[in-house]
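Researcher: Please translate sequence to structure tokens.
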Amino acid sequence: MGGLRRAPLAALAVAALLPASLVRADGARGGEPVVRVLLHAGEDAVQVGEARYRPGPGGKLLRNGRPTATRIALPGPIRVGKGRYRGRVVVTRSDGGLHVVNELPLERYLEGTLLKEVYPGWDAAVLQAQAVVARSYALHRGEQGREGMWDLTSGTASQVYGGMDAEAEEAARAVADTRGEVLVWEGRPILAAYHSASGGRTASAEEVWGQPVPYLVSVRVDGEEVSPDTYWRIPVSAANLGRALAGLGWPVGRVREVRVVERSPSGRVKRAEVRGTRSAATVSGRDLRRAAGRLPSTMFEVRGDDGEFLFVGSGYGHGVGMSQWGARAMAQRGADYREILAWFYPGARLRGDWGFGEEL
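Model: Translation complete:
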């Protein structure tokens, strides 16, 4: 899901960190953790290895049409749908239907994630920085989700994970070069948010999610000009915009005017006034972004009037944390991955041994 052009990571939630509980496969605290990645959820059937699993009546799990145990663990490598996965795959029947979870060592997970989030062929320093960021994010999510059935999803709600089919030598090299290195704050893995392009300045966690995070502050970003999202223009009809706003709880009618009335400290739209044939409303920049068809970012201007509006903007994503195109520009200017991480996550510390080791 989501092309490499716009290296996705979405729907990040800011939450308090819980006590560390990640363990490695043999149960020892502090070694390489095991992560649990949700590959499939719902009532639809799925092919796992040679068998087809689907939810059955009365809370049963059906294997090739026959009732079986409600939880089955299968060793990898194994095929799930069209993909191949290492570690082991756990198929479970629960109230939510069928859940298929891939359990595997964290470093193997990263090898199947890295080139789903950045372009292959980018500078080694960018891939190394992305490996540390993805590792830190996975551990942060794992600390919060340890009581559930999985820690991460395989799509843009967490990090895009492609299993064995997404592995490549350059990804494995970047993961190996940074093995066990984690960004921490007060000894805990950080919420290592990242996005494709910032539009010249990242956003703080407070201005996007409403809660300050000490290492997710706004910083200047230079050199994003080569990003395909440095400059974009998206036309939206007044009628479509009005219908979309009504669906979000703003029944203003056919839109006649859109005016930005407040911007965040990083320049993103915080509030906009919308006037329509029925009423007027002041909406958030995020609601307006959604109504206009999920614009690439909230860093935009609105041109035009009754009939059609032109949204002209820059950047792609929520804008918090590391800009991947900005990281690439830093690497091309000679920065190593540690300098990239220090710039985008000021105050966070780099530690080895999956956050349990010494500061690096």
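Researcher: Any highlights?
Model: Confidence is low (pLDDT under 50) at residues 1-29.
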